[in-house]
Amino acid sequence: MSWGVDQDGNLRRLRVDEEGRLLIGCYLPAWEAPVQSLEDLPIDDPTGTVRVVFDEPALYLKSDTGWEKVGISTFLSLKDTPDSYENQGGKVLAVNTSEEGIAFVDLETGATTFIELSDVPSSYEGQGGKYLRVNTTEDGLEFATVEGGGGGEASYLTDDFGGM
Length: 164
Description:
Elements: E1 2-5, E2 11-16, E3 22-27, E4 30-31, E5 49-53, E6 58-63, E7 66-70, E8 92-95, E9 102-105, E10 131-134, E11 141-144
Parallel strand pairs: 4-5
Antiparallel strand pairs: 1-2, 2-3, 5-6, 6-7, 8-9, 10-11
């Protein structure tokens, strides 16, 4: 059985009978005062009455067979959302890989130090006195020793200009 609202705002119920025929029922719902819990839903309300139940929160419709929950009342009950919050703590929502819903995924926090980057050396150990340069495959950085020169201390440019 399925419930829906038509273009005129009437609540309609679709169901298939024992012989396989589709039956469409129409109700002009009477919105009544909300109730606190399911136990507070009156048994004598007429068919077509709609009430809000605060404890859930959800809408309930009085049908000829009793009170029925209508619509979606929680995030997890949507058809394109995860089924449970279990083991999802600390995760975020993202479009799923099939791009037809959402899923919980781990938040990628990124690097907090230079050596955590994916295209740089993974350690400073044994690299004292070296400098960084682009590697020969031109897809990352590496530590290297100063090449050439006369062997002594490296000279540095300054803004002294010999007292000029």
